[in-house]
Amino acid sequence: MTNDTHERLTIEGQPTPKQDPRVRTQNWQETFLGFSLESAKIEATRCIQCPDAPCQTACPVSNDIPGAFRLLELGDVAGAANKFRETSNLPEMCGRLCPQESLCEGDCVVGYAIRPEDMKPQRPVAIGKLESFVTDTQRMTEGLPMPGVEPATGQHVAVVGAGPAGLAVAEELTKKGHEITLFDSWAEPGGVLLYGIPNFKMQKEILDAKLEYLWKLGITFQGNTYVGRDVTIDQLFERGYQAVFLGFGASQGNQLDAPGADLPGVIIATEYLVRGNLKPEQLPEWMRGPLPDAKRVLVIGGGDTSMDCVRTAVRLGAGEVTCVYRRTEAEQKGRIEERIHAVEEGVRFEYLASPLGFEAGADGSIERVRFSRTELGEPDESGRRRPVPTGEEFSVEADTVVIAIGYGTDDEIVRMADGIDTNQWSQVSVNEETFETSRPGVFAGGDCVNGADLVVTALADGRRAATTIHAYLQTLPTKQASAITGLTS
Ligand code: SF4
Questions:
Q1: Nearest residue to 274 via CA among 376, 195, 383, 186
Q2: How many other β-carbons are positioned within 10 Å of the β-carbon of residue 482?
Q3: Helix axes 204-217, 127-142, angle to 10 degrees
Q4: 10 Å Cβ neighbour count for 385?
Q5: Cβ count within 10 A of residue 46
Q6: What is the average per-residue pLDDT within 366-378?
Q7: pLDDT tens digit string along 312-353?
Q8: Do residues 302 and 332 touch, judged by C-beta distance below 8 A?
Q9: pLDDT (tens digit, 9 = 90+) per residue, 35-84?
Q10: Whose CA is nearest to atom 2 of ligand 1?
Q11: In whole angstroms, what is the distance from residue 105 CA to residue 123 CA?
Q12: Quick one: average pLDDT of 449-470?
């Protein structure tokens, strides 16, 4: 260990080993292989322990990153893991899934500090990979540490949606002594962590361990339950819940409004990912059939979901995988790391092209997509330059086309939610400080409020909402502990 900042700045970034592309495209294991303890400690020593910790300010859950790295440097891996767990319910996931380059690592001083002239520029501290390393090591060696739980309050909260926001609310409120039931329309809990993230980005054992921990804490899960259809919010209150949290996400894949978009072989990203990555028994019956055996897969869209789809297509054995995006790489959202992985795995990128229509072959299934060539015009409301058709057209042949152009909220849940205001995009309207909806006792947070966003922003909402739900429950008359009625499991 050194206390000399200049000495720390001369330590080179440790390699973050990956599976060779030729090997990893033949399996579904994670791309990154992880640090050794020795290299993790060296990497942590690169942190110069900035007093104002800009990395922490940039982190949506304010992880004490220098505090964790100080402990890791000393070899206290579990202590470092616990430091992350103090402020994050899902640190293994965030370490893998956060776009660190635009959050903590984007603001890390080590990435832009002035160094001796003979030293090449160095990347920021690998904050995300160290976060995964310490929390994975702790989980695999001693298990997830169980927290202290306050005495039972006898109060019950229904959490609608078992994704990142819902899991965070459930965990935090349970620690306060409340009883929580998680409801989800899917058969299994996890939301996007199960149904949206492919195994080559995060192995499912990580989620399984977290869920096991939540069940040990006493949280109950009721799957295959569509709140608003199978049970209304009024009925949840009638059954004895004192508060409801809506965290049902934004999992409705946007459709393309182009002729032929409903042809067989044209699939929305969520369906493609879950059928490609999960076991049939984890899916609703209508999704259980295997995906068509595609040789040429075309993915339309340029974000992280598109990268998940193209990399899934490669692993499913497609010989030719193309990603088509209507702007250029400079405007692409999503992680650069993921695009690099896709290129390494042989994916072809076609920029400045916008779909005009889908055409069927003799068997009635998709055979080709017609595109309009675009060029960049004036910036739109997102600040990115708008794609404008040039008049040139071309076609690309494909036997599977995946539409990955973003997500919206599920209209039906919101329409069926009595007395809850929504905005023009069907997102739930809340008080930004308290997460209260227009209906007393009903709170909401995460993607169903903000639109499709990061795991960590949903998690941050869940943690803050739990604080205000707990405060709300304390204003209610004290009740005798009572059982919830009418649950099917
Ligand atoms: S910004 Fe970088 S160097 Fe500074 S405390 Fe954070 S991780 Fe360490």
A1: 195
A2: 11
A3: 60
A4: 16
A5: 23
A6: 95
A7: 999 999 999 999 999 999 888 888 899 999 999 999 999 999
A8: yes
A9: 999 999 999 999 999 999 999 999 999 999 999 999 999 999 999 999 99
A10: 108
A11: 9
A12: 95
Same domain, 344 and 280: yes
pLDDT band at 489 (very low <50, low <70, confident <90, very high): very low
Ligand 1 centroid, distance to 307 Cα (angstroms): 29
- Do residue 208 and residue 236 come from a single domain? yes
Residue 85 and residue 57 share a domain = yes
CA distance 414 to 401: 30
The pLDDT tens digits for 298-312 are 999 999 999 999 999
In a domain, residue 149? The reply is no
Listed in sequence order, the residues at least 6 apart from 222 whose beta carbon sits closer than 8 Å to its beta carbon are: 181, 182, 183, 184, 487, 488, 489
Domain range for 310 is 255-405
25 and 106 co-located in one domain? yes
Both 112 and 247 in a single domain?
no
380 lies in the same domain as 421: no
Domain membership flag for residue 222 = yes
How many whole angstroms separate alpha carbon 329 and alpha carbon 268? 22
* 65 CA distance to ligand 1 middle (Å): 7
Q: What is the pLDDT of residue 71?
A: 98
Q: What's the token pair of residue 279?
A: 């076991």
What distance in Å separates the CA atoms of residue 450 and residue 427, rounded to the nearest whole number? 7
**Predicted model pTM:** 0.92
Q: Measure the CA–CA gap between 470 and 334, rounded to whole angstroms.
A: 35
At 486 the pLDDT is 59
Number of domains in the chain: 3
Is pLDDT at 413 greater than 80 in this prediction? no
Q: Are residues 308 and 241 located together in one domain of the fold?
A: no
Q: Would residue 93 count as lying in a domain?
A: yes
Say yes or no: CB of residue 54 within 6 Å of ligand 1: yes
The residue-averaged pLDDT of 86-105 equals 95
- Percentage of residues in the chain with pLDDT exceeding 70? 96
Output the CA 135–ligand 1 centroid distance in Å. Answer: 19
Strand order across the beta sheet in which 366-379 lies? 353-360, 366-379, 385-397
CB under 8 Å, gap of 24 or more: what pairs does 54-59 form?
54/107, 54/108, 54/109, 55/104, 55/105, 55/107, 55/108, 55/125, 55/127, 56/104, 57/107, 58/103, 58/104, 58/106, 58/107, 59/103, 59/104, 59/456
Answer yes or no: is the C-beta of 318 below 6 A from any ligand 1 atom.
no
> 72 CB under 6 A from ligand 1?
no
Residue 221 belongs to a domain:
yes
In 107-203, beta strands by DSSP E = 156-160, 179-183
Give the distance between the most distant pair of CA atoms in the chain. 71
